[in-house]
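Case study.
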Amino acid sequence: MYVYDEIDQRLVDERVAQFRDQTRRFMDGKLAEDEFRALRLRNGLYIQRYAPMLRIAIPYGLLSARQLRKFADITRRFDRGYGHFSTRQNLQLNWPKLEEVPEILAELASVQMHAIQTSGNCVRNVTTDHFAGVAPDEVVDSFVWCELIRQWSTFNAEFSYLPRKFKIAVNGAVNDRAATYVHDIGLHATRRDGRVGFKVIVGGGLGRTPLIGQVIREFLPWQHLLTYLDAILRVYNRFGRRDNIHKARIKILLKERGMERFRADVEAEWAHLKDGPATVSAKEIARIEERFTRPAYERLSGTAVPYSAPGFDAWRKRNVHPHKVPGYCAVTLSLKKTGVPPGDVTADQMDAIARLAELFSFAELRVSHEQNLILADVREDELPELWREARALGLATPNIGLITNIIACPGGDFCALANAKSIPVAQAIQERFDDLDYLHDIGELDLNISGCMNACGHHHIGHIGILGVDKHGEEWYQVEIGGNQGETRPGALPALGKVIGPSFARAEVPAVVEDLIDCYLERRDSEHERFIDVVQRIGIEPFKEKVYGNANQRQAGRRREPLVA
Amino acid sequence: MATLIKGRQVVAESPSSPDGEVVRLEPTDDPASIVARLPGAARVEVHFPKFGDGRGFSIGRLLRERHAYQGELRAVGHITRDHLLYLERCGFDAFELRAGEDPVEALAGFEAFSASYQRFS
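After joint prediction, the assembly is written out as follows.
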């Protein structure tokens, strides 16, 4: 964990006081609605369909047991006893009261937490690999760089009123588990001749105009990270479009200017900033590194006592992940049990999970962008015990990487922007694929659902992506396939899914997904060829034929019903 | 009622013609285009047309840091107390508040944060 110093704490406390004052001025009628809107958003506060929604920052997804207990306490006292983990590693409360939000922020500040810049047209919470620091394929531990970026972006006077929101993700491993190609800026920490630096990707994003980011710089030595970010952000702040909210992201500026001109603009700006006061020093990095507590691993042999039990083996296969320290592993607590909205956790579960973290994983956890919680430093010989505890809490569904590990936004049940509901669709699919043997036979598959084109459920990068659309006031669902968030194999870039055809009524969606799966199972070479591999190999046509052929039959069947009734 | 703040104090605008040119920049203007006029300028005004339009923050830093402008740099337009501290950090030293903003209460805006993570100049 990063432990606040005196300045970190003071700034967060001052933010609470500032927002308390802004809320009071709004209540007194001294602050206009639209101005308060801009200010409350940068404290994570939305006015939603039924109530305000408060988005709490979990910087780079790293969380202590103590902080999770505080969340539980807050959801009991100020909300309805549960919270929702989002695809950007944040926690959302769906039922806070506007006038109590300053109090909630004060409670958060007491455990070194906040809701700063979790929304609004500013640099948002920086995200990273949920296995940072422990993954065997890690090249650079991204946490220190994430914290450096957190500080650089927090209350950055120049970049606080950008044309639109700005999301940065950092990946430090060979595999990209941070979806860096679909962020405004994606950073791949790497090493060249032993020196740390970053591949800089810019202009990716989902939403209305989904685009895969482009590499603007192959290798940026670490000393220049912040001046280079300053240069990109300055070009964006000055020239990004402000006339149309749907064209205001940096990806549109990049698209309109083209990479050559955009890069030249950034380089010209950087020429002035390079080696200036914002240049990162080794001393600064050491200062931040010192404030991270790191797990005190024991020296273990790495050969755990063999253990086998019905259910345990499947869980071990899916929910336990390799660790760079011998004898340890990382464990995903699945928040994707059938019947529970993806990413939702009750207050009682939060307390119980905090206890598990204390017992098994140095009192720390991570939030994954797949909306699960991770115990990153578990001893292998303690896995059976952890499994029994997690199972009793309903957190051991062995579905990580499988079709029922659905990523979904809150959708029309909560969100004012949504065209359609997400949660009931997720549940219907989970119910359809509830048979474990079938689930494991299907193998690795990312299924993502968004309730509108803002794409909070990242549907464009699901192997199967489902998008809620509005058709004459009714909820319909468009289906795409072939998207993926990272390299599916070495050298293959992330890709956006392709829409297979006309949209479907909600009740049809599980059958459509089943058709897609049937087509995959018929066409795969072996069980080693995943769904995404088959789509990449044979294209979307066979899937389309399967789905719409069957859909026509289903419709014909329905039309015949009255005749035989 | 005075709506001008200078040096963190509410001041009455000097009524007479200023001693030099008043150069005004819109958010779309390039600060590099006025460099030749800076030595003779009484002040530079940067216009903020809307609450959420942050282009002027970059213009402020460019004038101070790149073009070494040392005279009065005034933010005009939709300026509220919630902008003041960030404007000051970007080099502004005079602030013409939008109509209806209480200038004395607005001074509290400078005190919002007592430290900063960024190193500008």
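Observations recorded in class. The first strand of chain B starts at residue 4 and ends at 6. The interface with chain A takes residues 51-55, 57-59, 61, 66, 80, 82, 85-87, 89-90, 108, 112-121 of chain B (CB under 8 Å). We will return to this complex in the next lecture.
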